[in-house]
Amino acid sequence: MFPVSGTSQEIQAITASGTPSPTPLSIATPMSDRSTPSQSPRSMISVAAIQILKEIHAVFRPSQPLCPSRILVHSFNIANKNRTLKTREAFIYDEILVRAGQSEVRGVCWIGGKKYKPFLLLTPKRNSEGRLMYSEAEMKMHMCAAGLNIAPKLYPCRRVDGTLSLTKSSIVRFANQGDLLLFFEKNTLNSKILIEIAINMAIQVDNLHLLKIYHCDIKPENFLVHNLDSGIHIFLSDYGLATREQKFSSKRGTKGYTPPEYASFQESYDGIAADQFALGATIFAVVLQKSLDRVFEHKYKTRFTISDQLLDYDGFSLFRDKEIEALIDEYVDSAPNFEPVRKALKGLLKTNPMERISIKEAISLLTETVASL
Predict the structure, then answer these.
(1) φ, ψ for residue 354 (rounded to 5)?
(2) In terms of C-beta distances under 8 Å and separation of at least 24 residues, what long-range contacts does 47-56 make, across chains too?
(3) Which of the residue ranges 149-153, 254-258, 297-301 would you say has the lowest mean pLDDT?
């Protein structure tokens, strides 16, 4: 099974004395007020730095060559454990590789000592009014999750003089395989590996809940894959919709992964239950390489109108569960050793949030199937 750092027992031991608040190293970069980094005086760019930027670029834009003239050089300060500042350089490729969540993403080669390290620069998008889409709470939740290796390491960007950058940017550790969708585009994987990936995703969501953080936007695009010598590590990213409030009233998430109770008259929703359903839909997408929403809508969803769901939600729930179960039985391998996978999906995708199985139960069921393959 692929290794995931930070077991439930380790996290429970930490949270027993309070929620951890890891403090990352301070980074300073001379960022401008614009969304595009300003260019500083050019220094010699080594072959190693260019190679790292090429590797980052190739994950997002495999068919496009890197343009060396778009590499910008920046100086920043980084604090060591004794809080003394040391000047470092970063080479930033000034092209938006992807717009993820509320951020624009660029590639970075960070030079620490004599080591060249791949990172990403996340710069907040601007809304229709021209304001930066930045959330201090989002960054803090990401940093808390990163402290236990659930999310990739993230460092707020700062100017060389130590003041906060007006762009509210951050540098985040690069997952060298990109998100799950990019990973699946480049690799053909067998059922055992796909289920192991599903287990790793579930472990990270369960660990996040132990930190009292509810993601509320679980989907394949928000899981990142990092290839290590010992295997691969799955990160959970994008905390733009995450909350520390288990009960919330505003609907959060992405169409196709939002729970069915959003169609009811409920006054509040449960973060654990919402993540359970979204995880089930994501596991369906990962294990079967098909979108649950598209398959379900094509086969069944047209039988129910919005008014049906609102006026007779209990009746809708009963029929929806039967049809989801029939769908899972149709698409998941019918072999006996895949029965636990079917049970896990049916349990996570229950229409009634009170009937959904826990993520730990789902992990146990999925592990049963892996052990038998």
Answers:
(1) -70, -20
(2) 48/116, 49/91, 49/109, 49/111, 49/116, 52/109, 52/116, 52/117, 52/118, 53/91, 53/93, 53/107, 53/109, 55/118, 55/176, 56/93, 56/97, 56/107, 56/108, 56/109, 56/118, 56/120, 56/174
(3) 297-301
Give the count of alpha carbons within 13 A of 75, CB side only. Answer: 10
Q: In what order do the strands lie in the sheet with 154-156?
A: 71-79, 85-100, 103-112, 115-124, 170-173, 154-156
Q: Which tokens belong to 255?
A: 């169409």
Domain extents in the chain: 20-173, 180-372
Query: Per-residue confidence at 5, pLDDT binned at 50, 70, 90?
Result: very low
Closest CA to 140 of 48, 211, 223: 211
Rg of the Cα trace of the chain? 22
pLDDT for 20 equals: 37
Predicted TM-score (pTM) of the model is: 0.82
Nearest partner of 72 among 95, 97, 44, 91, judged by Cα: 91
Distance CA 319, CA 317 (A): 6
Which stretch of 52-61, 161-170, 333-342 has the lowest confidence by average pLDDT? 161-170
pLDDT tens digit sequence for 130-168: 787 778 888 899 999 999 999 999 887 665 544 445 557
Q: Tokens for 141, please give them.
A: 């939740």
∠ at Cα 169 (138, 182), nearest 5°?
75
CATH 1.10.510.10 fits 180-372, yes or no: yes
- The answer to whether residue 280 scores a pLDDT higher than 90 is yes
pLDDT value for 271: 95
